[in-house]
C-alpha cells in the first residue's frame, strides 16, 4: 500500500496562531522558506519529514496531533450527506472533499449542520401529525445526535474529566479497591448505600441522600454505577464547565451529555489512563485479561481502549461499535480512518453482525474498505441479563478494530496472514454510499451512481451500477 502524504495546513495555522508567530518567524524556526510554509499551510504541499522533526524539537509539539481523526470524520460525513437524493448534480470528488475538510473544517461542519436541519424538516413534513401545531419545531438536531457528535468530534477523549478520574483512582487509600474507595467517598459525603431486588439499576434520592443499587446487576455494573453517582456528586463543577464549552442547543442535549460525561468519568476511574494503557500494552490488548484485572466488563474495556487518545501518551487508534440484533448502531466511535454511517446500519459483510451466531466467541476478520485502507476487526456478542427469570435479556455485539499496521500489538491477530492482500475481505460503510459495484450483499443501490436495468438479464442483483 502507498504511504499517504500528510497534509495538515489547518493544524499548522492553529499552532502558529497559538504561538503568536508571523509566517516569516514560524518559517525561520522550522527551517523552511516562507513560500514553502505558505504552501503547507494551504495544503498545496504535504508536511515534510524535516518539518515534523522541527515541530517536535523546536516546540515540543506532539506530532501525532497532525493526523487527527477530524478530517476523516468530516470527509465520511460529507460523503454520506452528499449521497442524499436532494443533491441532483454529480457529487464532488473525494479529493475536493478532503480539501474542504482540511482547509475549511468550520465550513464543512456548517454544511453538515445544514443538511441535518434539512433532514429533520423533511422527516417532520412526512409526519404531519408530529409537526402541525408544535411550537418547538425548530431546525436543530435531535438531542441524542447532538451529544453523539460532541463525543465523536472530541475523539471520544475528554482530557479534564479523564485526568480528574485518574487523580481519584491514584489517590485512593493503599490496598483499597476502586469500589471500596468509591463507597468510602460517598459515605464521607453522607450518602447511604443499600442494595435492593429491584429491576432499576440505580436510584438516588437527593433529599434523603440514599443511593439504591440493584442486586440483579452484575458486580461490574454495580461498581460502575457507584462511580457514576460519585461523578455526579463530586465533579459537578467540572462537568458543568465542560458542558458550557460544548454549547448544546437544547436542555435535553445538555442533560444527556452530562450523563455521558459522568459515564466517561466512571470508566476512567475504573480503568485509569496510565495504568490501563500500560496494562493494555503488557497483555497485548487481551480484553478478557484486562476485564479481570480492572473488574470491568468486556464492553467497558473495549470502549475504554477506544478513548486512549491523550496527547503525548496515545494508545492504538481503535474504532469501537455496538450493534443490536437488528443491525442498528447503538454506540460508535472511531479514532481511525474508518467512519461509521450516520444514518442506517453498518455494512452486512462486517464480522460484528456474525457475532450473534457464535455466542461466547471472539471473531477475527481482516477487512479492506473501498479507499484501500486495511483493518483488523474483532467482534464478540454481549448478553446483558435482567437478573431474573421474567426480566428481559438485552443482546448486543461489540466490534473493536484498528488499522492492520497495528495488528501485531494485538494478541488476537496472532497467526493471521496480514501480509497477503487476498486475505482481506471487502467491506464498506453503508450501501447508500458504498462504491463497490459487484457486492452480493448490497441492500439498496448507491445513491450517487447511475443504474442500468436489463429485463433480459439477472445477476446477483436485479440491476448493474455504472
Oligomeric state, counting identical vs distinct chains: single chain
Strand content: 5-15%
Rg measurement, Å? 24 Å
Class based on secondary structure composition and strand pairing: alpha+beta
Question: Percent range for helical residues?
Answer: 40-55%
List the strand order in the largest sheet.
5-4-8-7-6-9
Largest sheet, in brief, is:
6 strands, mixed
Please provide the count of β strands: 11
Low-confidence sequence ranges: 128-139
Number of helices: 17
What is the H-and-E element order? HHHHHHHHHHHEEEHHHHHHEEEEEEEE
> What is the approximate shape?
globular
End-to-end gap: 26 Å
**Averaged pLDDT:** 85
Outline the structure in words:
The chain contains 17 helices and eleven strands. With 466 residues, it is α+β, with helices and mostly antiparallel strands. The strands form three sheets. It has a six-stranded mixed sheet. It has a three-stranded mixed sheet with strand order 1-3-2, covered by helices on one side. Strand 6 (363-368) and strand 7 (374-384) form a beta hairpin. It is globular. The relative contact order is 0.08. Residues 128-139 have low confidence and may be disordered.
